[in-house]
Queue: 3 jobs
Job 1
Amino acid sequence: MKLRAVELRRIAMPLVSPFRTSFGTQHQRDILLLKVITDGACGWGECVALADPGYSPEYVDGQSDVLRQFFLPALATGQGAAAVGEFGAPVVARLLEPFKGHRMAKAALEMAILDAELRETGRSFARELGGVVDRVPAGVSVGILESIPALLDVVAGYLGEGYRRIKLKIEPGWDVAPVRAVRERFGDDVALQVDANTAYTLRDARHLAKLDDFDLLLIEQPLAEDDVLGHADLAKTVRTPICLDESITSAQTAAAAIRLGATQVINIKPGRVGGYLEARAIHDVAAAHGVPVWCGGMIESGLGRAANAALASLPGFTLPGDISASGRFYRVDVTAPLVLEDGHIRVPTGAGLGVDPIPEILEEVTTAVDLFEF
Ligand code: NPG
């Protein structure tokens, strides 16, 4: 495979309603898409970085810059040096290894090259990654709202649509009361979990233990991302399983967190860990330790969601992921919309991602395009 060019395309997609978390409110998604053009095919990658570095150090302008200044030139040199037939997605991480961090940009580039490779040979993402099911249960993430009645209305709507699991965003002042209200109104059968996005400290351990009364699947990332030991200590006070998200940046950090007793469940987001191949490696490490995993979401377009559905079809993904239908966040998606079927999302079977951007829609949401030629 030979790279000819990479198109960097920025799109702006308004959200159907504002999405508030403990670190900020999103009104629209400013996404960087990569289109890799090779001698045999095209492939799409999606960079999940937000507009600002509120979730992680990455932000979309920064990812765009590091791609142009460092990653694309390194691939240009690298593919020249690679033996014939050697260049491809598994080589990308190795060529980019000298550069620290910027995992979301690395992941987007690897995704696009993997897509191009798979399209050329007619294989799907799910098959390549090792998927074993043809549909995955859909969970939905519910932002922080202005009142408990408003929250109950929103949750009722999602349960009515068939979502198989509800995740409530929490922060100090919006935790025990909303969880109690959802349990009281919808009963014990609803699969329910919470996500704090690092909003607490170990001093809140006794308060967080109050959530134990509500039979939650897990508490996601209650403490700071670098407070792995704190999570291990918290797990001694809180009975609800702790699930790390922001803290897990690689298979190595996953193995360490498991060994320390800091995480009983892992949220795997390919963008956060540098790509789908590293995501699969984390799945394998977790499976070897009997740790369940689930696929997180970053409000992706249909392109990223299709790839996430493929990842979530691996056998260790035993909990429903944040893999909601396109309509959860977008009135119009750039691909044919992903829809709920009996609370599940179908895993695409076509070559590569198995979905394509719809050209007219893509043009409509595009704010800038730039071409890097090899
Ligand atoms: O379903 O795509 C989705 C969103 C799921 O809540 C969700 N994601 O912290 O996990 C998170 C949160 C998030 C969204 C984080 C956007 C960062 C950006």
Job 2
Amino acid sequence: MRVGMLTGGGDCPGLNAVIRAAVRKGVQQYGHEFVGFRDGWRGPLEDDVMTLGVDEVRGILPRGGTILGSSRTNPFAVEGGVQRIRDTLERHGCDALIAIGGEDTLGVASRLADLGVQVVGVPKTIDNDLSGTDFTFGFDTAVNIATEAIDRLHTTAESHHRVLVVEVMGRHAGWIALHSGLAGGANIILIPERPFDIDRVCAQVESRFATHYAPIIVVSEGAVPAEGGDMSLVSGEKDAFGHVRLGGIGDRLASEIEHRTGKEARAVVLGHVQRGGSPSAFDRWLATRFGLHAVTAVHEGDFGTMMALRGTEIARVPLSEGTETLKTVRDDLYEEAEVFFG
Ligand code: F6P
């Protein structure tokens, strides 16, 4: 069998671990050959391929990013895109495709599967917002990076008696903010699922100072104020899947807090630092197992499925289950964290 592989959407630590595991098992156990498509769906759309064998995957397990490159190309937004993908797969003799991505990349995979393309999905995203799986790889690494940042910010915030607002990624889901905020002992956590009341935030800031501690606020880039408006939009620019580019909530929140409370407030935007560098041990473990199971699903002809972590087991769920609705933070999980607010 010849198997194509691509990585799409925002990159994250662990992509190379999936690629390595799928190639190693596919070649060694099943005698499959692989074709790498560059930059997500752009690869099969524009017939941009690379050799992908055991030599190419040697040494990449701990490396961040993706040797295949990534993009946010949407073949359904391109005239004749689906046919061009079919033609490329046929030209390279690919019987199947492993697509590694988040809601957009796997959303495309799901639609292609419905159209008869033999595709298997592997869920990745630092945002951890894909349904059907307990965790996506990349998330644990991002949470560790954010937690280390929060730990460091506590000490400098205390020295200067100032508020520090830490902006983390999370467009629609506050998983990174919630987990790193809990792990780092944040005093306020603001997430997209729970529009925040700026008066309440300021009251919590003041009560924190009253006990002689400096507040740390962790805010997801997609968090919004309850009174409406959108503090976080930096530009109206949209990607091929219609997402606006976010960022800026941290700065706006800090200046609003400073203005209302008279306390000095600064913002730190972690940005792409959360997506770069070497994957954590957990992410290497999860990504490797996803890769091993994905190539087995291909070998068994179980197409239209996505690998999923359920407890400690790797399961297969329909691609549509992973992509139709986003997995957002439940109220009860957020409320657990509220005990530490203020
Ligand atoms: O999709 C994951 C994500 O990390 C989002 O949280 C964030 O909004 C987005 O990627 C930003 O990605 P980029 O700057 O690469 O477009």
Job 3
Amino acid sequence: MSFTIIKHPLIIDKLTRMRKVETSSKDFRENLNEIGQLMVYEIFRDMPLKEVDIETPVTKTKGYTIDVPVVLIPIIRAGLGMTEGIQKLVPTARIAHIGLYRNEETLEPVEYYAKKTKNIENSYVIVVDPMLATGGSASKAIEIAKGWGAKQIKFVCLVSVKEGIEKLQKDHPDVEIYTASLDPILNEDGYIVPGLGDAGDRIFGTK
Ligand code: PRP
Ligand code: URA
């Protein structure tokens, strides 16, 4: 299973803005959105293309269009904030939703919503959540997506730690992981350090 850290000065700069405690929800959302767009270039690098006949103002020629339907699956809530940016560049993508929250004591994911799209089994599926901490939420969401029939799945996050990567690699060795940062510590409360705090609360201004 592959694990890719997408490093780019623009992503690093925007992530640093997001980490700062004084960053407003508006700026946090905007930077998350923009990082989502920047990460798309790498995530979709292996997308299959099909040859098509086209006509330019000058001549007939061959062109290439994307040959596979795309399904994005944000893990609600925080995944919604990152999916928006990705969707801007892949506007034909269908969106499925999975709602999970972590039990504060056990840190286990609790499912409260799941809505699939049609044709998911033939689609290029991207599960999106900014935070990969214990890995419980991502693993559960991927399990649900596989239960819907999804076969070709990638997981995209902004900030990750070793524990989450290892859990996903163990539970779903077929799923490629993309992240913008591998942070050093998962603390005893299940927060990533230095991290950026509770992503959902910062996106939606709920604390
Ligand atoms: C956050 C985050 C992930 C999860 C990551 O969601 O958005 O879904 O925690 O932690 P894990 O890897 O240990 O499972 P949270 O449960 O806070 O819900 P929210 O998005 O509604 O705030
Ligand atoms: N979920 C978050 O939103 N932040 C963390 O640091 C860990 C899990």
